[in-house]
Amino acid sequence: MPEGHTVHRLARAFGELFTGETLAVSSPQGRFAAGAAVLDGHVLVASEAWGKQLFLGFADPTLLGQGTAGRPDDVRWLRVHLGLYGAWTFTGDGSTAVVHAIGAPRRRIGERETVPAGPGAPEPDDAWSPPPPRGAVRVRLVGTHAVADLTGPTACEVVTGEEKRAVEDRLGPDPIRDAAPGEGDPREEFVAAVRRSRSAVGLLLMNQDVVAGVGNIYRAESLFRARLDPMRPGRDVPAEDLRALWDDLVVLLRDGTRTGAIVTTRPEDRDGAAPTADVLDALPGRRRVRQNTDDAPDAVPADEAFYVYHRDGLPCRVCGTPVLLKELAGRNLYWCGVCQA
Ligand SMILES: [Zn+2]
């Protein structure tokens, strides 16, 4: 499932690609036909993320003409949660602005970002027209230079500003967002939410009401970096440790937003030696974690990017004992039983 940094990157891509444009909105698959009809022909005026929730704000162009756009109550929001299987696929005309926004003429952003192999950016073409939708496209947004197709989301609906605020009020603080004026201190909200629960801190980090945007990778990696036992009850974790954990999440998630890849290892903890094929074959159920920077020559290789995530059975980078794995609330939890005792 995409973690918060991916959703913030999506929000930025939508902002760069479509802000101020009148968009053709449709539902090629048909399941979102009524919602698409509400938004069709409206102008994109905002693109925001809160944790794993994406909000695209649309204004009626006739209201824009009267100068009343921007009034929050006039904006209709497309709320999307990708869930486990959702993805956005962007295709553009190859113009510089499009390539800057999505990093390629075509890119798929979901569980992981992909840039299809093939010829480089085509020359911008005055006669560009969007390619036909592939697969079951729930929503298609078409602008002047690019098209965005949404497939397989967990949530996709049109909401009012009030309904959007109700969703946000239920969410915990997001380490990537800057707190708006009048909002509380997100770090103290996080600390208080963890400390009023007797649930394991490893469960609380995955609870979007406690902290928004952390998924399975950031959960495992931030707990390792903090040397915190994932099974420790939240109320027993000292507030100082939780403040440090929050500060680390801010650094890690914002770094992921900037680069598009999750890298949590410190340079001195990378061994430069990827596990051999025999070692990997002997470990059941592992699969390689791919990141969208895998082909970049100066990127940290995926095998070196994590301390514990998907490293069960491999030696801990710090103490050398095998990394542990167990299922917790239906998701795999990875940790070091020595470093995080
Ligand atoms: Zn260890």
From TrEMBL:
Keywords: DNA damage, DNA repair, DNA-binding, Glycosidase, Hydrolase, Lyase, Metal-binding, Multifunctional enzyme, Zinc, Zinc-finger
InterPro entries named in the record: DNA_glyclase_Znf_dom_DNA_BS, FPG_cat, FPG_N, H2TH_FPG, Ribosomal_uS13-like_H2TH, Znf_DNA_glyclase/AP_lyase, Znf_FPG/IleRS
Region (Disordered): 110-132
Domain Formamidopyrimidine-DNA glycosylase catalytic positions: 2-110
Entry EC number(s): 4.2.99.18
Signal peptide positions (record): none
Gene Ontology BP terms: base-excision repair
Residue ranges constituting the FPG-type domain according to the UniProt record: 307-341
MF-aspect GO terms: class I DNA-(apurinic or apyrimidinic site) endonuclease activity; damaged DNA binding; oxidized pyrimidine nucleobase lesion DNA N-glycosylase activity; zinc ion binding
Cofactors: Zn(2+)
Family affiliation: Belongs to the FPG family.
The protein's name: DNA-(apurinic or apyrimidinic site) lyase
Biological source species: Cellulosimicrobium cellulans (Arthrobacter luteus)
